[in-house]
Amino acid sequence: MEFEEFTVGYERVIVAQVPEYEDWVPALLFQMRTNESKFENSHKINNRWENSYLEIDLVPEVRTPMRFARDLGMQVLGIRSVILFEPPNRSAHPYPPFWFNIAGPKQSTGLHDHTQAAALSAVSYLQAEKNCGNLYFCSEKQEELEIEPTVGSVVLFPPQLRHGVRDNLSEEDRVSLAFNLHSFPLRDDYL
Predict the structure, then answer these.
(1) Of the residues 2, 90, 180, 189, which has the fewest C-beta atoms closer than 10 A?
(2) How far apart are CA 108 and CA 170, in angstroms?
(3) CATH of 4-182, one of 1.20.1560.10, 2.60.120.620, 2.60.40.10, 1.10.10.60
């Protein structure tokens, strides 16, 4: 399994190409686009929905990059994790633990981190034109790493590592699938 490894502070970031992306990326984009009217959105930032959720039965192809990320996390980082395709407790967490981000031209994603209940976070790129906005990571508010998105790649990182996405300077939408992988047993604060 080929991958690149980077460090941000003391944290490891892994980048790899998911096999057979020429097949699963178009299939997943089709599933997502077909069901856009069913998106459940969490919050708007700068006039764009930051996270758009669909149920697993509408986008079954998300399993491909998520399974690859789980296996890569185990093989490279030694992190055993489970994939959740549905939240274990809908009253506490109404959305699935994976989501789509669609950023049009001149749109970006601000600096943030993910749930502490996760063992590992990841993003996989479904549509990424040149200059569509690099993923960047910061340690203690200092930028330390930028990764250029490529279609079919997956980036694994610790959920507490702060990250954001630069402005999309292309003419096309940047589309990514983001998700968290969880330790088992699940933490009480996630149930």
Answers:
(1) 2
(2) 12
(3) 2.60.120.620
